[in-house]
Structure formats: structure tokens, C-alpha cells
Amino acid sequence: MPEITLTAEAGRATGSSSTRRLRAEGKIPGVVYGHGADPVPVSVNGREFQVAMSGEAGLNTLLSLQVDGKDFLTLARDIQHHPFKNVVTHIDFQIVRRDEVISAEITINLVGEAIEVQHGDGIVDQQLFTLHIKAKPANIPPSVDIDISGLTIGGALHVSDIAIPAGVELETDPESTVVAGQPPRVQATAEEEAEAAAAAATEAGGAPAEAVASGESESSEG
């Protein structure tokens, strides 16, 4: 995974007034930490940070953070956002090493077309959107793909069906369902309504419709 260089300014003042001033200047306050180093308060240019994080690696983008002549290999973690505005308000830059194994979360992409599900008017129901993995920073993939071409109605694909790149260890349960082929929604709704009606009749002390119909048939025959 390529590294992106990002310049940070150290020695920012802390406190709410200083933070507001930084944000007014288009900067984002943050802190660099990890591997026993003392936390270093920093600030980065907001636009430059957004550009750096806009690649396919997303939150797993390796950032070569330049701070007062020092170079820190980092990952952006615990990115905080304003509760109402779509702006970043604070960033934690976690120091990592190229030779260490770290935890990360990556996106799952569905590829191919579930032809059989489509022909049956079924629904492709993606139930898992990310994977938790462990890998060295350079081995963290931007995402992984799962081919849904063979998916059928009533069938499912699991984490174990995903081709995991070399050097990557799964933390998510391999038996977890990623995507399932569901029956048409109208059909499912009709079946649910029938089951609910039967349950309601039983709770009310009445016999299910099938039993009533069967009783009437036997009575008429007698």
C-alpha cells in the first residue's frame, strides 16, 4: 500500500478557544501517539487531509506524517466529526511500524450478478459490509471482493467464501454470513401474514384454518 505524505504542525495550543481558531483557519487539531512516545498535539490542513484520505484505502491509508523534521508512519484513527456539520473536528494519528501486525477493518465488495436470484425476483441481502483483519500495514488491502454469481434464493455466502490475500489474518468469524438470497418480498410478507393469523387463532383458543376446514369436510361426509 503506498504511503501519502502529510505535513503537520506541532506545538498547537490546547483548549476550546484555540481549537475554534484552528478550525476557522481550515485546520484540524489532532494528536500523534503510540509505541511509548509522549503524545504530540498537532494540527493538519483540513483540505490536504481530506485529499489524503480520499483514496481507495480510506481509513487504512498509510500516512507519512511530517512533524518538525520528524517522520512518523501513522494511521488515522478515532476521527471525530461535528454532530451537525460534515466536518472533521479531531484526529488521532496512531504510530505504526512496517514490521508489526495491526488490526484493521476493510470493506467487502459484492462482484458479479446473482442471475438466479434476479430471475426469481429475489433479493440480494448483504448482511456483512466489513471484515476485521490483522496484517502488517503494507499488507492491509483496501477492500476484498466476494463473487455472488452463484448465489441462489435460500442460499448464502460466508466469510470463508472470500479469497483472503496472503499476509492477512481474519479476525471475523469465517462462518459469518456475508450475503444471502432472499425470496421475493411480497411472497415473504404473505407467508408471514399467514403464520401470524394462525398464531393469533391458536392464542384465541380457536383451531387453525386447516383444522377447521378438515373438520367441516369430515362433517359433510358423515
Number of distinct beta strands: 13
CATH homologous superfamily (4th level) name of the largest domain:
Ribosomal Protein L25, Chain P
* Unreliable stretches covering 5 or more consecutive residues: 209-213, 216-220
CATH architect. name of the largest domain: Beta Barrel
Number of domains: 3
Annotated CATH topology of the largest domain:
Ribosomal Protein L25, Chain P
Q: Can you offer a commentary on this structure?
A:
Residues 209-213 and 216-220 have low confidence and may be disordered. It contains five helices and 13 strands. The N and C termini lie far apart (81 Å). It folds into three domains: 3-96, Ribosomal Protein L25, Chain P (Beta Barrel); 103-182, RNA Polymerase Alpha Subunit, Chain A, domain 2; 185-221. It is an alpha+beta fold and 222 residues long. It has a six-stranded mixed β-barrel. The radius of gyration is 27 Å and the shape is elongated. The longest helix has 19 residues, at 185-203.
